[in-house]
Structures are given as structure tokens and as C-alpha cells.
TrEMBL record:
The keyword Phosphoprotein applies. Its cofactor is Mg(2+). It is an enzyme of class 5 (isomerase). Its EC number is 5.4.2.8. Residues 498-546 form the Alpha-D-phosphohexomutase C-terminal domain. This is Phosphomannomutase. It comes from Leifsonia shinshuensis.
Length: 571
């Protein structure tokens, strides 16, 4: 039986749902798109029916990462109807938990398609529901919104962004103030909000009360963020010794980052002009993520032309940081991995904690996600700091008790938890440039510092495999197969043990993750992506034997062998 035959019995109900959605959709573009699909389905188009099923058989679920999806009509896409339902549902949750006071929310948005529209809809619906709503005055980086939650002392924050997703995607991230200190939501809050959203979805968004009595935040919010972020630079040495190129990757980072860099006293960056200003089409990159192959080609070219010492890249909403250093290759630069940057920033945090401690010893917690390099744990042990490994996502990293620094390998770093409890690509860039300038004062480079790290803590090698799928069921099949028939060896190395986090593990909440620990201490982590149709495999190995070259060779060889074994196992 074909998919069309399987769906034939419920096509009338499907069309009824689609017409009901169409009737309440205020967006001319998605209305026209859905109307065209309905007409085609009524005329017997199997393709149109399948498309409607993809949009209406399920809906984007409001989880701990909020909402994220392609902009199009229907409950399984991002659009004004879905956002209105989410805003009204979240407003009801805020009112339910207000403890007799008026709840408040600050709303931010980036430069993606419809971000400003979704943000204004949210402000109007929040105000209409009786929530004090504050809309940021212009498109701004996600870290500014996370900062604003604490700076304005509001109950919650909403950021309209899809970060580094494909151009036609958008999303909806939620933060909580008060005792949550501006961190993203975690379970069970997501399920509670989702329940309210589903109740709202039973009605028509046209019946929801709206009000234009919301506030527009002053420029003082961004100014305070700029001041606090520039203060991350702490070196007493000259801060303009290092030259660097900067790209905003068609996002919203440049204007804010420029002000921070100037306030911190760094040299004026050479800007990748083609990627400086917000552009929702992201015309110069196939995928607006600095981790993706080719995404930093223009910044490499700019760096070569300018003869710079470093390249600094933010992703489109500026919550991630990528760094590249000269390497003498044809490209001229090598992008450091997230683990390399995280290790160096973690070492910097440990050093600062030791220098500033009145007790003469460092104190606080270094934290990273379970799929990030074990290098940070080695730093924590050397400085007698606490260490926490958390589930993936800064909603978890940011909540580590006593946190002084946190990171995850996907280019996310939290360097100033006293002001921002989320990953922040601009403050991380400030910390990294501060480190580079401090090294330059003694004639050293970032490459030298990486060698110093390997000499002191060991050489840590990492790799990642991303298996992108078109059928999401394939991810479940692979995870089920690994659980049903766990490997006893990977390549030539025996598996020591496998930790299944599905039902929780130690202090970690339940998560669909397998941690495979090898007899030589190497590690493989396997988990489905939370935001993309991918199965992600993370591989880590280290060596502290021999000189730096020998340590590098040993660790990288182990990682390469494990990568080959995992590709064969999941093929």
C-alpha cells in the first residue's frame, strides 16, 4: 500500500484541519501557501496530501530548547499561528506561577526571516494576557536577551532565533529569571508550558486578547551588556598587540561586538564586509554555521589579505564563537575545535580563579557537557577545582553549582556566569582576545599555548561524526541496535563498559545517550541531535606519555581508529 493509500481514509479530516488553520492564519505568505496545498489536495494530488500530512499529523513540540523549525504553514512548522499559541500558552504558565504578582517578560529577536514579526506578536499577546512585556529595541544577539533577563529582573525571557540553522528556519527560546538566574528552561517546566500551549491550540488565535501596551526597552540594556562584557578582559598587558579579523556570518553580532571590542581596548578588527550585516538569506554560505566546511572561507581570505594573528567568528545570533589561527597551509588558517577553545578558556578561568582568590587557592566549578572533551576535567583536577559534566545544552551547563566557566564542544562558552547564564560568543571572544594579548606580551602565540597545554595536562584529541538522515526513524533504529547488540570491541581496542543514560545515570537526568568507554581510556558518545535530523558520535582520546609530538600522534591515531570503527558499526 502506498503512503497515499494509507492516508486516504483520513484525507477529509486532514483537509478540515488545514482549513481551520487557514482561517486563523494572519500571514499572507503562509496563507497563500496553505491555500494552494488545500486546492491541490482537493483536486486529488497525492503530493499535496502527503505535504499536508507532514504539516498536520504532528506539531513542533515545545521542549527545553523551545521551538525550532522551517517557516511554513501548519502546526509542524514555524509560523505566526504556532508562535501565537506558544506565546499565549507561556503567558498562562507565567500567570499560574506568578505568586500574586504581575509576571514580566523581555523579548528579543535576531535578523532571521519573521523574527521581528514573531517577537511583536509575542509582546502583544503577553501584554494582552496581563503579563508586563518588554520588547528589545532592535534586532540583537541572543546573549543580550539572556543578559536582559537578569539586568531587568524580569520573570522570563523569549528570544526569537534559530541560531545557526538553515536560512528558512526560525525558533523560540525561553529563559527564566528569579532563582533560575536567566538560564534556559529545563524539565518539567517545558512539559508544563507545552500543556498550556496545547490548550490554547484548541481555539482560534483570533480570539486571544492582544494589547499594544507593551514597553520598548531603552538602549541602556545593550549599553550595560557592552560594559559588563568588555570587563571580561582582565590582562594588565597592552590589549591591542594582537590583530584579528571578524565575521558576523550575516547575523546580528557585529554592532554589539564592535562596541565591546572597542570598550575593551582591542585593536580594530578587519571585518569580513560581505558577512557584516544581517541578511536572512545568508548568501555567502551554504550553511550559516562556522563549524560547517566552507563557512569560514571568506574570513580566511580576509585574514590572509590583512595578515592578521587571529580570526574571530560569531554565528548568526552571536551565541557561539569560532576561532582560527595561522597554520601555514593553503588556506592560511586552521579553525580550532570547540574542545581546543574550551580547554584554553577553561585553563584561563582556572588561572584567574587562583590569582584572585584571597585564600591562595582557586575555587569554583568548571563544567562542560558530557560529549565535550575530558580536557576540562584535567584542568579542574590540576587546580583542585570542582568539575561537573552535564547533559548537552547550556540549560544544563549554566546550572552547575559554583560555576566559573562552562563550555560545550559545539562552539559554546560561558565565561561570565555572574552576568549571562547562557553561551555567549561575544564575551567568549573577549576572553579569548584577552588571552591572546596576554600571551603576545611575552612573545607567545595561541599555537604555543596549545603546546603548553599538551605538555602540562596531556594531549587531548577529538573527532565527531554526524550521520544526517532523511528518515528520523533511522536514528532510533541505530540506537536500538547498539543497545540490543553492544560492541565488545571497537577496532583493536576492547570495550571496558557502556553507560546507558536512557534512564538517567548518577546525577545525570535521563537522556538518549550511550557512553562507550574503551580499555585504553578512550571514549565514544552516541546521541541523537536535539535540533537537527542527525545522529551524532563524539570520540575522545588522550595521551600524556612522551614529548608533545608523541602525545599528539598517539591520541590522534586512537581517535582515527575509533572513528573508522564507528562508521563501520553504524553504516
Amino acid at each position: 500500500m502506498t503512503p497515499a493509500d494509507a492516508h486516504a481514509v483520513d484525507t477529509p479530516q486532514l483537509l478540515e484541519q488545514a482549513r481551520a488553520w487557514l482561517a486563523q492564519d494572519p500571514d499572507p505568505e503562509t496563507r497563500a501557501e496553505l491555500q494552494s496545498l488545500i486546492v491541490a489536495a482537493e483536486a486529488g494530488s497525492a503530493v499535496a496530501v502527503e505535504d499536508l500530512h507532514a504539516r498536520f499529523d504532528t506539531r513542533l513540540e515545545f521542549g527545553t530548547a523551545g521551538l525550532r523549525g522551517a517557516i511554513a504553514a501548519g502546526p509542524n512548522r514555524m509560523n505566526r499561528v504556532l508562535v501565537a499559541q506558544a506565546a499565549a500558552g507561556f503567558a498562562r504558565w507565567l500567570l499560574e506561577h506568578a505568586a500574586g504578582t504581575q509576571p514580566s517578560v523581555v523579548i528579543g529577536y535576531d535578523g532571521r526571516k519573521n523574527s521581528d514579526v514573531f517577537a511583536r506578536d509575542t509582546a502583544e499577546l503577553m501584554a494582552g494576557a496581563g503579563v508586563r512585556a518588554v520588547l528589545l529595541p532592535r534586532l540583537l544577539p541572543t546573549p543580550v536577551l539572556a543578559f536582559a533577563v537578569r539586568h531587568l529582573d524580569v520573570s522570563a525571557g523569549v528570544m526569537v532565533t534559530a541560531s545557526h540553522n538553515p536560512p528558512n528556519d526560525n525558533g523560540y527560546k525561553v529563559y527564566l529569571g528569579g532563582e533560575n538566574h536567566g538560564s534556559q528552561i529545563v524539565s518539567p517546566t517545558d512539559a508544563q508550558i507545552e500543556a498550556h500551549i496545547l490548550e490554547v491550540a484548541k481555539g482560534d488565535i483570533g480570539d486571544l486578547p492582544r494589547s499594544e501596551q507593551f514597553e520598548i526597552a531603552s538602549g541602556d540594556v545593550e549599553a550595560a551588556y557592552i560594559e559588563a562584557t568588555a570587563a571580561v578582559a582582565s590582562t594588565a598587558a597592552p590589549r591591542d598587540a594582537v590583530s584579528f579579523a571578524y565575521t558576523a556570518m550575516h547575523g546580528v553580532g557585529w554592532r554589539t561586538a564592535e562596541a565591546v571590542f572597542e570598550r575593551a581596548g582591542f585593536s580594530k578588527p578587519v571585518v569580513v564586509a560581505e558577512q557584516r550585516d544581517p541578511d536572512p538569506a545568508f548568501p555567502t554560505v551554504a550553511f550559516p554555521n562556522p563549524e560547517e566546511p566552507g563557512a569560514m572561507d571568506l574570513s580566511f581570505a580576509t585574514g590572509r589579505a590583512g595578515g592578521v594573528d587571529l580570526i574571530i567568528a560569531n554565528d548568526p545570533d552571536a551565541d557561539r564563537l569560532a576561532v582560527a589561527i595561522p597554520d601555514g597551509s593553503t588556506d592560511g588558517f586552521r579553525r580550532l575545535s570547540g574542545n581546543e577553545v574550551g580547554a584554553l578558556l577553561g585553563w584561563r578561568a582556572a588561572e584567574l580563579a587562583e590569582r584572585t582568590s584571597t585564600a591562595g587557592a582557586a575555587f569554583g566549578t568548571l563544567a562542560c557537557s558530557i560529549v565535550s572533551s575530558p580536557a576540562l576535567a584535567a584542568v579542574a583536577a590540576a587546580y583542585r577545582l570542582d568539575f561537573a559534566d552535564t547533559l548537552t545544552g547550556f540549560k544544563w551547563v549554566s546550572r552547575a553549582p559554583g560555576l566559573i566557566f562552562g563550555f560545550e564542544e559545539a562552539l559554546g562558552y560561558l565565561v561570565n556566569p555572574a552576568t549571562v547564564r547562557d553561551k555567549d560568543g561575544i564575551s567568549a571572544a573577549t576572553a579569548f582576545l584577552d588571552l591572546a594579548n596576554e600571551l603576545a606580551a611575552s612573545g607567545r602565540t595561541i599555537a604555543d599555548h596549545l603546546d603548553a597545554f599538551a605538555e602540562r595536562f596531556g594531549y587531548f584529541a577529538s573527532d565527531q561524526i554526524s550521520l544526517r538522515v532523511t528518515d528520523l526513524s533511522r536514528i532510533g533504529e541505530i540506537m536500538a541496535a547498539l543497545r540490543a547488540t553492544p560492541p565488545s570491541r571497537l577496532g583493536d581496542v576492547a570495550v571496558d563498559h557502556i553507560d546507558d543514560l536512557r534512564d538517567g545515570f548518577g546525577a545525570l537526568p535521563p537522556s538518549d545517550v550511550l557512553r562507550i568507554v574503551l580499555a585504553d581510556g578512550s571514549r565514544v558518545m552516541v546521541r541523537p541531535s536535539g535540533t537537527e535530523p542527525k545522529l551524532k558520535i563524539y570520540i575522545d582520546a588522550s595521551s600524556d606519555q612522551g614529548d608533545i609530538a608523541e602525545r599528539r600522534a598517539t591520541a590522534t591515531a586512537r581517535v582515527a581508529a575509533l572513528a573508522d570503527a564507528m562508521r563501520a558499526l553504524t553504516a
